Amino acid sequence: MGNPAAPACQPGAAAADRGRPGPRADRRPGAGAARAGPGLGADAGRHGFAFAPETEGHVVTLDQAGLRKLLGASRGLWEGLSRSRAAALQADSSQGQALFAITRALRDDYAGSSPWRAQVLDGAVLMAAALVARLPPLAAEASAAAEPEGRALQHLARYREQVERHYRSHPTLDTLAAPLGITTTQLNRLCRQHLHCSALDVLHQRLLLEAKRELGYTTLQVRQIADGLGFADPAYFTRFFQRLTGQSPSRWRDER
């Protein structure tokens, strides 16, 4: 849903109309799959999922802080999304039909400008979150309900909250790790184990996501975007953006 280009290490969920997230595709007619990582997201890879070439479906990428705020009044739902899930869904099942309808509605409404758009999007996300939370956790995680694994995911969720809160000020990893009560070494180990990227990558990808949003959806000049994202020198922002995307901010905006 709606990120210009969803970066690695961002919360997300995948729903495949045909095939499935993973190294092989399910070729049975009418078969589909839904998969979600912790907090409705963050497995490995660019969206957290690997797809067979013939897989068709949707990846929904959500801002974790916004999602948590949206789910705040729904007791237990956030915690219910704290473990990864994967499930085969028949196209004619009520749950499968609902999830695929929601993902298509999110795509269509996000691209549109109909009245009450924000309310429709929030309602769709809330319903999708509840349906995903009903899916059984992956067997390995279910058997672990597991202290170490549970603590690791909690640390990662709290780390992403710290990133969301402070990314514009370019904090050090020591600053971000301190409220979690763990060292930067432990934080990096958790990120590499669960997100397949470093803790610094999580911070950089959040900055990149915001840069792409502002380049894609505002008319701000590059130097204004750089300043708003905490880069004292626009040239440094350009080098940062080009290192992660292979393009300058201006070229990326022109080629959208």
Automatic annotation (TrEMBL):
State the PANTHER family in the record.
Answer: ARAC-FAMILY TRANSCRIPTIONAL REGULATOR, TRANSCRIPTIONAL REGULATORY PROTEIN
Give the source's domain of life in one word: Bacteria
UniProt keyword list? DNA-binding, Transcription, Transcription regulation
Q: Where is the composition biased (Low complexity)?
A: 1-16, 30-39
Keyword Transmembrane set for record: no
Q: Which Pfam families match?
A: HTH_18 (PF12833)
Report if keyword DNA-binding is assigned. yes
UniProt name for this protein: AraC family transcriptional activator of pobA
Q: Which InterPro entries match?
A: Homeodomain-like_sf, HTH_AraC, Tscrpt_reg_AraC-type_HTH
> Domain HTH araC/xylS-type spans what residues?
157-255
User: According to the UniProt entry, which residue ranges have a biased composition of type Basic and acidic residues?
Assistant: 17-29
Region listing for Disordered, in residue ranges? 1-39
